Amino acid sequence: MTTKAPLAAGDKAPAFTLPGDGGTEISLASLAGKKIALYFYPKDDTSGCTKEAMEFNALRADFAAAGTEIVGVSPDSAASHDKFKKKYELGFALAADESKAMLEAYGVWVEKSMYGRKYMGVERSTFLIDASGKIARVWSKVKVPGHAAEVLEAAKSL
After folding, report:
1. Taking the model in full, what pTM does it have?
2. Please, what are the domains in the chain?
């Protein structure tokens, strides 16, 4: 099994096209020319993922003012995203990567361990992509409190 080097600042963001909430399609190409706060999270409507989504949602206007689109990605279905988005009144796009191809391309589908049991899951991560499609900054193993504000500050400086 070969493991590729993790994506880093300066790398070209891997292209993707995924089903989104509300029957939409979300792709890197459709967001070309905009900055993107692309955040990966494990599961809709769980405590940490809900807190993270709410933090990004609370700063939505500030991200828009910084010319930055927020896109959340998890392996949940688009139908699950619809429920999650409606329940918490989220005002940004959620993309469904049920095949996990994009999660793998971004290096966030990883082996995890809990109580000695190993399993595959999403490593909570965020990629700030600049308007030219290059990765400007990467946050791995994200701790939720204050994270969205940190991403916003980085987006403002791009």
Report:
1. 0.95
2. 17-156 (3.40.30.10)
